[in-house]
């Protein structure tokens, strides 16, 4: 099967839409694909057309839309659409479509397309909690994942009517980012490299806060973007992902369980709990190193005489050192981050190597943050140090590129016997 670079045109994406109320949200997903230069063919089910009409899909995609294998039969659409695709995304994917895909049924254009596609396939389920948790749905999901499909975990939140729970359609922008990630890796490596399938990974992101009073805190400039890129990349590679997010103002990555925290103590508790069943932990968060020994219960006021209060500090828990030392899973791969500037005592890499030895982790990602570089930026560059003495330079590129470079090193350690 040729890829988009081989046939010289725009990447060819099939957007399958099944019959759930979240079908209207797929319009936003379609818009993101088309505006970023993808050639999109929308294949709705008949039920999907009850929610969003064919005219809408045709107008947004610039192509005629059909759900019937008998339309334009001379072009053999039930075979050709899947054969020509570089990526298939089914969003929303109902329990019915997941069951058809798992069992190889082919009674409409979308199910035929899924059978003929030899490219990566991403399903974004959306349904009521009881339907998602039903044993039949879970077995179908497990079957699809075993065959190499990416089945995104649904989000938690408001469902149809007054119901809430797991089963909500993830943010379309985040589905787009994950799908684009899957497509990019397929183009580079061929097939769907789900090398983290069956693995549970934990990622921390953001910066913790240690409160002086109800409105003031000690913190840092971490935006959480690199941690979120790591979580998104791991999900695209098939992992079950727990993201411990400290004060991050970003949308939840699709298919990722997000645990929100504020303080370093809360971060420590969440990471330790999640690490108990983890195959890898990547500590991309920037925990505060110190906390006030006392927190005022009311806002501290300025004094009339111009004097300032004396604040006593204590060290916060060293989460990276703790999880490196006390590994619930002895085979787990632990990755730390070091934001360094270098000084008279040593260079950025000197400090990084010392930290790698001191913390006891397996890999350490060293960032040179002189002049405020990295924080809040969309790009990053780093050196990945290995406990075995290796060092990999990752040139300036998107934080997604660095995320995949890190997971490449983690996956390689999975393959190497301890």
Automatic annotation (TrEMBL):
Segments passing through the bilayer: none
Organism the protein comes from: Nocardioides iriomotensis
Region (Phosphopantothenate--cysteine ligase): 201-418
Cellular component GO terms held in the UniProt record: phosphopantothenoylcysteine decarboxylase complex
MF annotations from Gene Ontology: FMN binding; metal ion binding; phosphopantothenate--cysteine ligase activity; phosphopantothenoylcysteine decarboxylase activity
Keyword field: Decarboxylase, Flavoprotein, FMN, Ligase, Lyase, Magnesium, Metal-binding, Multifunctional enzyme
Designated name of the protein: Coenzyme A biosynthesis bifunctional protein CoaBC
Domain of life: Bacteria
Family designation: In the C-terminal section; belongs to the PPC synthetase family.
Required cofactor(s): FMN; Mg(2+)
Domain DNA/pantothenate metabolism flavoprotein C-terminal, residue spans: 196-412
Domain Flavoprotein: start-end pairs: 12-181
